[in-house]
Amino acid sequence: MTEAVIVVGAGYAGVIAANRIATGARDAARVTVINPRADFVERIRLHQYAVDSGSARIELRTLLDDRVRLVLGTVTKIDDGSVELADGARLPYDRLVYAVGSAGAVPVVPGPLFRLDDVDQAERTRTALAVLTGGTVTFVGGGLTGIEAAAEAAGARPDLRIRLISQGELAASLRPAERARMRASLRRQGVEVIEGQRVTAVTERAVITGTGSHPTDLAIWSGSFGVPELARRSGLPVDRAGRLIVDETLTSTGDRRIVGAGDAIAAPASVGFVRMSCQAALPLGRAAAGTVLARLRDRTPDPVTISYVLQCVSLGRSDGAVHAVGHDDRSRGVSFGGLAAAWVKERICRFTVRTMRGTIDRPSRAGATERIAA
Ligand SMILES: Cc1cc2nc3c(=O)[nH]c(=O)nc-3n(C[C@H](O)[C@H](O)[C@H](O)COP(=O)(O)OP(=O)(O)OC[C@H]3O[C@@H](n4cnc5c(N)ncnc54)[C@H](O)[C@@H]3O)c2cc1C
Question: What CATH number is given for 105-224 in this structure?
Fold first, then answer.
């Protein structure tokens, strides 16, 4: 019997999962990926895209095995055995992979805040930056994304004053010496770094923190991401953030037919720390496929564990930081920086795309995409 497997979302996790299920199951499954657009978005390059120092779109079909059917559309509800799309169409499933990723700003700060988290938002930011000459741009959020974005902007737009505001210490997950190196690099590149100030609101002309007002021409959110509401809206068990709760095999605790991967899941501690990252999304996508394939073969899926080895941060095009981390993603205190680190980071970005292409067994023919309303 051929089962219908639907993969919702063609990001890092969804593409890997779809290809591995399609190539592993052969005639036992018909795999359909549903995604709003015909491009794969390299989200890890959206800050580059926004400041016009790189592109972030790849034709999705070129990353999918020919056995995978691609449907363009947005899933609005997951029902018992079928999904509903934005245009009202319904597609049936026997098994489903939930891989909708993350987007949006958390916490939401009131006011005109530009964003980098998805391609439409990055496009809007890019347009606003393009018409700006000689002003100040403030990035709100001093984690790794904020650091990368501020440094990229400083390098690409020397005509602008770049500011980075962090609620706590910059890159709070790193060791003090590593943080100090990042601060020094940002300052060398002309980025004004403000730490320990929570942004409470943004106006057309300023970013407001608990202690004052910082004049700005553009404010860009570079803090944490939220997740889509789809699982919650579909009545599936979710955590407070709205992430699909899964067990140690990545199976939804509310429906055994549904398996989750990537940013949009909350996994038990036994799986390991799931940082919102393509570093976690790729192995999770692979593992989700393993669970689906095991069940298609009437086998019990193996428990999943993920771990980390390196954390790589770009600081513009000619500086960076590479930290050795333990399986729990915590720095082990061994690191290097400079041009070599920037080079490694760039190689890793390319490697993620190569990893996805590596799961293709039969390259796609043109035209195998179905359009349903996005
Ligand atoms: C500026 C920036 C820099 C980053 N830098 C790094 C980095 O250096 N290293 C790192 O590891 N991570 C980085 N990240 C984080 C990383 O991009 C994400 O963690 C990763 O993309 C998550 O992969 P995913 O497959 O779970 O989801 P995504 O890549 O977000 O893909 C989800 C897909 O699902 C689709 N989708 C959503 N809802 C629906 C729906 N209802 N119906 C159909 N399709 C839907 C989306 O359109 C999207 O195509 C960065 C993110 C940003 C924004």
Answer: 3.50.50.60
